[in-house]
Write a structure and sequence with these properties.
The complex is a heterodimer of chains A (244) and B (696). Chain A has two domains: 98 residues, Immunoglobulins (Immunoglobulin-like); 93 residues, Cytochrome Bc1 Complex, Chain D, domain 2, CATH 1.10.760.10. In chain A, 30% of the residues lie in helices and 22% in strands. Chain A is built from five helices and nine strands; from the N terminus they run H-E-E-E-E-E-E-E-E-E-H-H-H-H. In chain A, the strands form two sheets. Chain A has a five-stranded mixed beta sheet. Chain A has a four-stranded antiparallel beta sheet with strand order 1-3-7-5, with no helix packed on it. About 7% of the residues of chain A have low confidence. Chain B has 696 residues and is mainly alpha-helical. Chain B has six domains: 40 residues, no CATH class; 106 residues, no CATH class; 119 residues, Sandwich (Immunoglobulin-like); 170 residues, Cytochrome c-like domain (Cytochrome Bc1 Complex, Chain D, domain 2), CATH 1.10.760.10; 79 residues, Cytochrome Bc1 Complex, Chain D, domain 2; 106 residues, Sandwich (Immunoglobulin-like), CATH 2.60.40. Chain B contains 31 helices and six strands. A two-stranded antiparallel sheet of chain B has the order 1-2. A two-stranded antiparallel sheet of chain B has the order 3-4. The longest helix of chain B has 24 residues. The radius of gyration of chain B is 35 Å and the shape is flat. The chains are: A alpha+beta (244), B mainly alpha (696). Chains A and B meet through helix 2 and helix 5 of A and helix 20 of B.
């Protein structure tokens, strides 16, 4: 009983404190000097990071007016699911109408849906949804294997350190983000292609077999990585019980 | 006195009569006896367990989950590791494979990891108080327990407690450990390794005993004031010296410097023009090791040698000339190879490098001649700041234990730390803040300001957090030991030549050396002698996509023969003989069969080029002349199992049968170079000429 009472007491105290705190921040926060009519993403969306770390690039959003020009001095707030932290979480746009924030991912692997918002002159809320991907232990192991064995052919982008072999191939490999194609292939089939090469599923022999090179754990890691980065997202079949 | 009357009346009511008193005392005892069971009944973990049971109700897998569920306190006890974990009491679903859709803590499934939880427990990786059964005590720092749960971003530090060598699965830990060695941290801070010995620095701070031959006092002053103003990628940290202190240190270093015979020189050659210099710089692949900042501000090039963006403002021309002629005169163990440049080349390259100057760098540096007092003061400062912990300075002893030892920093009790006003009171936050801005903890502290990115600071913190009590005390049988550093040194004249050419800066042989270029431990088995001679004379590229390549050292014929003989004799693989697979008499049928296999079944052309017109594969080396380059035994064994010859190579193991490998070897060995001299090598790649030669 005592415990209950204490619990109720502490909840009341917490609520009161939170209320006070919220009042304080809104009073001390920056006051917008201008308002836009649209909120668009400039850069930093769809990045792939590691759980618990700061994303390599900051997230940049832009507040625009009717003509599509940047609005300086508009207030932008960003928020995300539990565990995600922003530096800074809100602020005014700079002279080019952009607001830049660094994002630290939470400790769970998966897709993080973020929400950036600003208000119009009429106090109407404008929202912009952003998505970032956090790789856990297994997916990151897959990412490392991708970098060593796969990306030379499967990633069409070239860098000075790693020239892509994509253009040299007669049958073009699928990029791992190509969800439209890869999501239709079952886990077992993808494992078969990785292990036994393209001909295992009547595909091109240009894809060599890695079953004698990679271990079972490594192939599973690669699969987890491919599923994680696919766009549109991959949803395995089955019943979903705990939607919340 | 109403109160006293009240009191006495209350006493009267409770204990006035012996039977009443007996009843009251019994009641008091009963209530106090009930406290313990009540505490148990209302405990947090019971609450979580009943919440879990109601959560899994109605799921399709409820029956399985309920069967797996065990009520009560769950404990993992690992006496060898000193682990007593009761985390699974609340974290009930952590090993349930079907709970993938549940993200609610404490019921969530643990993501896939390298170890099994029943073998390692939870606190080995996550820290915290394993034996606790309340959320607060298990996760936070309490009066009786200092180590709270480790934030997820530092989890890799726990891998480092047992894994003493680099671990592919823990890139952040690897980066942090490399930075500890590379950024010079361990010059001042001792880090004793659990396996014995101390962590060794991998950077190579130059000796300052002869610095006056190399550069001017003005440059030293500007460098001391802000090393990153001279080179953005400089390792040297900023000591935030006052103007007078920098003046005095520069005075001391110049006065203390002694010349070395031959470390300055002049050449009798006409000054080279800029384009010739740029192309010589490119041909010599200077950029494999040295970086230059481009117009966009990006530092482009290798990081083995110092950045050269403003080198013209630093070095004295006569020193540069002597250095280009033979760097080993000034610095015998330098990682820079001794290119055998001709005088005209030295002049051309020297002019090109000296033009890389920045007039602004030294524009505001005006130093009066040094006074003896300044020099004495400079010496005191050099000793105070511990310059000799990194640099060799004649007359100054290398200080021992100059900075606090970091061997057990990851277990440092937070009661021993002094925090800043505006920071969280946790060890990771303390370490991060200390690395980010050491002087914010006190302006009189000596630790300099480093230029590190947020990612590098996080990695360094991870590496430091891995240096715990547990890492030191874990039974050696349970630790994954590190590999010993190889001290291999090739023998004889060839060994001397290899040191002179600094082969180990890029190549790895018998466990020693860099990773920029291929491992040469078995080079004698893999290549043919004439090819190696030709390659050393005029290194051409095997992999068109690479930007870092073997430079041309302008070796004399005698040197090439010496080196080739040594490599061909010594660097042999023990598992097979280089002459064991005789393919010279392969029938055209076998060659044709190999060709079919190459193009159809194995589709090797996706990564390799054999027919330079039709094939485009860019991942592996070009194979147009492979029959003149590699031995048939090497090709055969490579096809059978590439990973065994070069661990980590991209080429997958195809599990070929002996016959298949033989046919493919026959086809590949038929790809010979034209017998024309090297100058026409490019044209000699046509397919017909080598094909005919194959049956020679």
């Amino acid at each position: 009983m005592m415990r209950r009472l204490m619990l109720v007491g502490s909840i009341v105290a917490c609520v009161a404190l939170c209320g006070c705190a919220r009042k304080n921040t809104s009073a001390a926060g920056p006051v917008p000097t201008a308002f836009g009519t649209a909120l668009v993403e400039s850069s930093g969306g769809k990045q792939i990071g590691t759980v618990g770390t700061t994303l390599p690039q900051p997230v940049v959003v832009q507040v625009n007016d009717d003509q599509g020009n940047g609005v300086a001095g508009a207030l932008v707030e960003v928020s995300g699911p539990k565990g995600v932290s922003f530096d800074p979480p809100s602020g005014l746009t700079d002279s080019s109408g952009q607001f830049t924030t660094n994002l630290m991912l939470g400790s769970m692997a998966g897709r993080y849906q973020l929400l950036a918002s600003t208000r119009t002159k009429a106090q109407k809320k404008l929202d912009l949804k952003l998505e970032e991907i956090a790789l856990g232990y297994q997916e990151r192991l897959g990412a490392q294997l991708d970098e060593t064995y796969c990306s030379r052919c499967h990633n069409p982008e070239s860098t000075p350190e790693r020239v892509s072999n994509f253009d040299n191939l007669e049958v073009k490999p699928h990029s791992f983000t190509e969800g439209d194609t890869l999501n239709k292939i079952s886990d077992a089939d993808l494992v078969a292609i990785i292990s036994h090469g393209g001909p295992a599923l009547n595909k091109s022999p240009l894809m060599p077999p890695y079953g004698y090179t990679l271990s079972k754990t490594e192939i599973e890691a690669l699969l987890a990585y491919i599923r994680m980065v696919s766009d549109p997202p991959y949803h395995p079949a089955g019943t979903y019980y705990a939607q919340k | 006195m109403p109160s006293s009357a009240n009191k006495s009346s209350l006493w009267q009511i409770l204990f006035g009569h012996p039977i009443r008193a007996f009843g009251v005392v019994s009641l008091v005892f009963l209530v106090s006896l009930a406290i313990a069971p009540a505490k148990n009944y209302f405990s947090e973990w019971r609450h979580y367990q009943s919440q879990y049971l109601s959560l899994i109700q109605g799921r399709g897998d409820a029956v399985t989950l309920r069967r797996h569920f065990q009520g009560g306190i769950q404990q993992t006890w690992l006496p060898e590791l000193g682990v007593v974990d009761r985390c699974a009491t609340c974290h009930v679903g952590q090993t349930e494979a079907t709970l993938t859709d549940l993200s609610l803590q404490p019921f969530r499934r643990h993501p896939v990891m390298a170890h099994k939880v029943d073998q390692f427990g939870c606190v080995m990786c996550h820290r915290g108080q394993g034996a606790a059964t309340t959320v607060e005590e298990a996760h936070s720092s309490t009066l009786a327990w200092e180590q709270p749960i480790l934030p997820a971003r530092y989890t890799e530090s726990s891998c480092g407690q047992c894994h003493r060598a680099a671990l592919a699965e823990a890139p952040q830990l690897n980066l942090g450990r490399n930075l500890l060695a590379r950024e010079g941290c361990v010059h001042c801070h001792t880090v004793k390794l659990p396996g014995g010995g101390t962590m060794k620095a991998t950077d190579d701070p130059p000796s300052l005993s002869h610095i006056a031959d190399k550069t001017t006092r003005e440059w030293i002053y500007a460098w001391l004031k802000d090393p990153q103003a001279y080179a953005a990628s400089a390792t040297m940290p900023n000591f935030k010296l006052k103007d007078d202190d920098a003046r005095d240190i520069s005075a001391f270093l110049v006065a203390n410097s002694t010349p070395i015979a031959g470390d300055t020189a002049t050449v009798n050659a006409k000054p080279g023009d800029a384009t010739a210099g740029a192309s010589l710089y490119g041909e010599s692949f200077c950029s494999s090791c040295h970086a230059v900042q481009n117009a966009a501000g990006d530092v482009v090039g290798g990081d083995l040698g110092p950045e050269l963006t403003r080198v013209g403002s630093k070095v004295k021309p006569e020193w540069l000339t002597a250095w280009l002629r033979n760097p080993r005169v000034y610095d015998p163990p330098t990682a820079m190879p001794h290119y055998r440049f001709r005088d005209q080349q030295i002049s051309t390259l020297g002019t090109f490098l000296l033009a890389k100057a920045d007039s602004d760098l030294l524009a505001n540096v005006h130093l009066d001649p040094a006074t003896p007092e300044q020099i004495t003061h400079g010496k005191t400062l050099v000793q105070e700041y511990g310059c000799a912990a990194c640099h060799e300075i004649s007359g100054i002893k290398r200080p021992e234990n100059f900075a606090p030892e970091l061997t057990r920093i990851g277990s440092k009790p937070i009661t021993q730390l002094i925090f800043l006003a505006v920071m969280q009171h946790t060890l990771p936050d303390y370490i991060e803040a200390k690395i980010r801005q050491p002087r914010s903890f006190g302006s009189s502290l000596k630790m300099p300001q480093y230029t590190l990115t947020a990612q590098q600071i996080g990695a360094l913190t991870t590496a430091l957090l891995s240096l715990t009590d547990r890492a030191q005390t874990i039974p050696p049988a349970l630790a994954v030991s590190s590999t010993l550093d190889s001290t291999y040194q090739p023998a004889g004249n060839a060994g001397q030549l290899m040191s002179d050419l600094a082969c180990f800066s890029c190549h790895r042989i018998n466990g020693r050396g860099g990773d920029m270029a291929p491992d040469l431990s078995w080079e004698g088995t893999s290549v043919q002698r004439p090819w190696l001679v030709e390659f050393l004379k005029n290194p051409n590229t095997l992999r068109p996509a690479l930007i870092r390549r073997m430079p041309k050292f302008n070796l004399a014929d005698g040197e090439i023969n010496l080196l080739t003989d040594y490599i061909m004799t010594v660097y042999q693989i023990p598992t097979f003989d280089r002459d064991s697979i005789a393919i010279g008499s392969a029938s055209p049928v076998l060659v044709e069969q190999g060709k079919q296999l190459f193009y159809s079944k194995y589709a090797c052309q996706s990564c390799h080029i054999v027919d330079s017109k039709a094939d485009k594969g860019y991942v592996g080396p070009t194979l147009t002349q492979v029959g003149s380059r590699l031995t048939s035994a090497w090709v055969y064994h490579w096809l059978k199992d590439p990973q065994s010859l070069r661990p980590g190579t991209v080429e997958p193991n195809r599990n070929m049968s002996d016959d298949t490998a033989r046919a493919l070897t026959a086809f590949l060995m038929s790809q010979k170079a034209a017998r024309k001299p090297a100058g026409k090598a490019a044209r000699g790649r046509s397919e017909k000429a080598p094909r005919l030669e194959a049956r020679r």
